[in-house]
Each structure stands twice: as C-alpha cells, then as structure tokens.
C-alpha cells in the first residue's frame, strides 16, 4: 500500500537521513516542496529552474534533486478537500524527509488555524527561525552604507508571547486568573485587562543560542549577540541572556570569549580565532543596527524581538522582496519566502522570486552543497548589478530593465 494518499514519492530519489545528529545526503536527495498560494506558483516555477540549473552546473549531472510535491494552503484544499489546509501527511513527509522548501501561504480565515506557518513550526518543533540579512549591490536601500549590514538572525520560534496563552478581557478565565495573581502575589492587575503569558525557558533559550553559536563556528563568524529586554523583564528576557552565556561557557568554552572577559583578561583585544559573545538590550540594538551595523554578526533573540528585528534589518538592505528564511529544528528544516502571497499579482509572472531563490541558497548550504549555493548567489548578484530586475526593484532603480519573474530567473541562469 502506498505510504501517502496524495504525495508521490519520486522513484529516482533517495531519502536524506540523519546519523549521529548530522544529515546524510545522497546524490539524488528527495526534497519536499510546497509551491505556495497567490504568487507562489509563479515564484516556485522560476526558482526551481534556477535550482536545477545550478545543481547541474555544479556537479555535471552527477547529482540532482528529486523534488517531491507536498501540499498546504489553497492547493491542499483542492487536492484533499474542504478544510484540509495542512494535511497530516504533509507534516509527516517533512518529518520523514527532513528538508523542505516552501513558497508563501495564505493565512486561512476561520477553520481553527491561526496561521499555517505557525502550525508547521509548532507541529515540527522548528525552534529556530534563521534569517540572513545582507546587501546585494544595486538593491535600492534607505541606508547610506547598506553594505555594512551582514547579520544572521536566530529568532526563538516556540516560546515568548507567541505561545498563544492569552485570556480575553471580561471572560471568566481572565477574571479568575487576575483574582488569583492579585491575591496570592499581592499585585494590582486591572480587572478589565486581557492577559497574555510570556514563558521563556532555560531549555528553549539554550537550544536556540546553541544553534546560533554552532552556526557562528561553522561559518567563521566573529560574534554572537544576545538581544533581550532583560533590564525590564528580568526573569524572562533577562534569563534568556543569562542562559545564553551559560550555554556558551558550558559547551563552547574553547571557542568563545565573553565581552566581560575581553576587557578583564584580554585588554579589549580579541584573541585570534575566537567568537565574541555579547549582549544588547533590544531598544538599543535597533539603534546599533542603524548606526554601527558592521559590529554585529550572528544575533540570537527571543521570539517577539526577533520578529521586529528581522523585518527592520531586512528593510535596511532593501526589504522583504529578497529576504530569505528558514525554520529549523534539530535536523528538520523548512526554507521559506519571508513575504506573503501578494495575491493581487497572482498568475501575472511579475513578482520578485529572490526570497525563495535565496532561501534555496540557504537550503543548499544546509545540505552541504555549498558550491550550488555560491553559484546561485553569485549569479543573482550579477543579475541585480546589471539592473535586470523585477518591477519592485525597477521602480526604485535608475536605468533598470524591468523583467518578469520567469525572465529574471532565466537571466540568473544565464549569469551562472
Ligand atoms: P504580502 O503578500 O507580503 O504583500 C505585501 C506587498 O509586499 C505586496 O503587495 C508587494 O508590494 C510586496 N511583495 C510581496 N511579495 C513580493 C515579491 N515576491 N516581489 C515583490 N514585491 C512583493 O503581504 P500581505 O498582502 O499582507 O499578505 C497576503 C497573504 O500572505 C495573507 O494571507 C498573509 O497572511 C500571507 N502571508 C504569508 C506569509 C508566509 O507564508 N510566509 C508571510 C506573510 C504573509 P507592492 O504592492 O508595493 O508591489
């Protein structure tokens, strides 16, 4: 009997497996994809061509991706039927095949799902949202020196005020809760308040910071900054910072120096080959990102700070149109566009596929096919520099040639 009802497992591919916590990638790995809603199909079609061309070029046809379509969003409704926005077998397939890439998905209205992206993160425990933010020459940016921005942001994905533990003002639940807290802990929460809970755990903080430090080590990065609001929220955001330093010292002692140690033991001069662990208060970090972005490299932060900071940082280098992202668990990862479905442009072959293409670059690095990632990234850089771009960039660039989604992809392939 077939394993899945609707998903067709490619006969020519092999599963990416995990051994001792590391991915084992065959020559024809099966990678799951969700094309996405709205402009998703246009973007996906263009991106896939770029991916396949780069793999072919990098390995002379000796390796190739066996793409496996899985379904979520509006396409899932047409394949599986009413209310099946996120079929169980989609989640199962990602869990089993470890690596997936997706276009943007419509957020269902009604039907009990707040957001498909949030549901995927929770069901697969994709605890780290990873967003690299760097500048590509020629992209219109509001900054004087956007080239100074080159950070990789690790945002905690499962805790904080995003955990969905909220009680509406005026309900019995909230009234009981307020009475209990006010009486038991001698507090003074107003009776007509809504209340949300902000859990931040040692477990959740440490595994996120650990991932960020591992990334910094593997990619020769210089620093990891813990961004928090611990001066006010001492036992949640402040604890995040403390736990971050703890895991850095416990597990990476030979690789790191903290900012305190830098001044106490090294007279402020960074010892060769070490990674600096520092922390910044969130509001100050927003200023720092604008004023002295070159001092920041890898950033690790709780959920809400990360949400704001990643979009603000992306704006510094030209916006979400080409901002890539990934949601990663211990070994399972979904790479995704960070923008939405832009429904008004659906089917027009118009929007920028850069976000999914650069998410693909992250994916190739993740499976160890760095050569492929480099080919794509360099060709994309060259294409933007030559001012052959989609409408979103063209409208802000002098002398640009505006092309369609598919033409932009073809140009990238030509420039590889
Ligand atoms: P959106 O789809 O991101 O679109 C907002 C605007 O951003 C577009 O009108 C367009 O600007 C620009 N834009 C977005 N993608 C672009 C691209 N690839 N190339 C060039 N420009 C692009 O946000 P939305 O309209 O608020 O949301 C639409 C749907 O997407 C909603 O259902 C929302 O919930 C969902 N959503 C999904 C994700 C996800 O799956 N990761 C993320 C966010 C939102 P101009 O109008 O100026 O041309």
Name the beta content range: 15-25%
Secondary structural class: alpha/beta
Helical content (DSSP H or I, runs of 4+): 40-55%
| Main pleated-sheet profile | 11 strands, mixed
Major sheet: arrangement of strands: 4-3-5-15-14-6-7-13-10-12-11
How many DSSP H or I helices?
14
**Shape assignment:** globular
Can you list the ligands bound to this structure? NADP nicotinamide-adenine-dinucleotide phosphate
Task: Specify Rg, calculated over alpha carbons.
Answer: 22 Å
Number of strands: 17
Please mark out the parts with pLDDT under 50 across 5 or more consecutive residues, or reply none: none
Measured distance between first and last alpha carbons: 43 Å
Mean pLDDT: 95
Tell me the layout of helices and strands.
Blueprint: E1 17-19, E2 22-24, E3 30-34, H1 40-59, E4 66-69, H2 74-80, H3 88-97, E5 99-102, H4 116-123, E6 128-134, E7 150-156, E8 166-167, H5 172-185, E9 195-196, H6 202-218, E10 223-228, H7 234-252, E11 256-258, H8 259-265, E12 275-281, H9 282-291, E13 298-301, H10 303-316, E14 324-328, E15 333-337, H11 354-366, H12 370-385, E16 388-389, H13 391-394, E17 401-402, H14 405-414
Parallel strand pairs: 3-4, 3-5, 5-15, 7-13, 10-12, 10-13, 11-12, 16-17
Antiparallel strand pairs: 1-2, 6-7, 6-14, 8-9, 14-15
This protein binds NADP nicotinamide-adenine-dinucleotide phosphate.
NADP nicotinamide-adenine-dinucleotide phosphate binds next to β15.
